[in-house]
Amino acid sequence: MRLLILDAGHCLSLALAREANRRSDTRLMIEERQAISAEALAELAPDALVIPPLARPISAEPAAVVAHAEAVEACLEACRATHTPLVWCVSDQLYEDGHDAPIDEHVIPAPRDESLRRLIQVGDRIRQQYAEHLIVRLGPLFALDGASAWLSELIDSLLAGDEVRVAEDVIFCPTSADAAAMALLGMLHQQHCGAKAWGAYHLAGTEPVSGYTFASMVRTQLATRLEGLGEQVELGPLKALNHHHDQPLRRVLNCRRVLEAFGVHQKPWRLEVGRMLDTWCHGRSAGEAS
């Protein structure tokens, strides 16, 4: 199976490349650009086009959100012209107001923010105009490298001694970029073999948690590992932010449909963070030794 991945520096693109390198049944073509023409897509002739998510759209500049929406629309037109399946990954932040219960796939986000509504319009167009699509809604991605790699950003800030300000009253499911990449490749291979299970899916980690609790766990685990390496590092402090004073905002995705359709189980974020921190420490030790 040949896949074309856009936005080469994105943490999900790098995770897909790592996962594909471990397999003999997947070939990736990765492009720096964030949109592609029908002519270029026809020349490359992939079995699917994958677009990584715009990270943190709630806090992104409106112009960046609009540019991402326009790029996805251009990709939609190219996919329609060449009959190429389209995979668009989307941030869970489009569920701007959250929900008391886990959010099912059939629930279309209805944000109040005008630029976020632009992304909803793109999703509506994809659903209405092109059957061969996967809209994959992800929790906040974390990874050790690449653009929007939340974990690496957090580690760098803590090591620099900077204060890390994180919301304590927003509950979500942190999503490992590596686990998401493994799931996406599994889903696409099943589609390539004739599954025809197109549509919208939720793909996030298990165990809902606040950003502050996630960051606290990372800080504690990082301190423990640095101590084990014999390093005395004064990590930066954490500051809890509260934006929703009446009750926490819950943005928890129900991932039942991806399990039923593709057999994809969600990976616990704690295990993934532990694995990544072990990898980070190994790299740090190797770098010091060299």
UniProtKB/TrEMBL annotation:
It comes from Franzmannia qiaohouensis. InterPro entries: dTDP_dehydrorham_reduct, NAD(P)-bd_dom_sf, RmlD-like-bd. Catalyzes the reduction of dTDP-6-deoxy-L-lyxo-4-hexulose to yield dTDP-L-rhamnose. SUPFAM superfamilies: NAD(P)-binding Rossmann-fold domains (SSF51735). Binds 1 Mg(2+) ion per monomer. It catalyses: dTDP-beta-L-rhamnose + NADP(+) = dTDP-4-dehydro-beta-L-rhamnose + NADPH + H(+). Keywords: NADP, Oxidoreductase. Its EC number is 1.1.1.133. Its cofactor is Mg(2+). This is dTDP-4-dehydrorhamnose reductase. The keyword Membrane does not apply. Belongs to the dTDP-4-dehydrorhamnose reductase family. The keyword NADP applies. It is an enzyme of class 1 (oxidoreductase). Pathway: Carbohydrate biosynthesis; dTDP-L-rhamnose biosynthesis. Residues 62-279 form the RmlD-like substrate binding domain. Pfam families: RmlD_sub_bind.
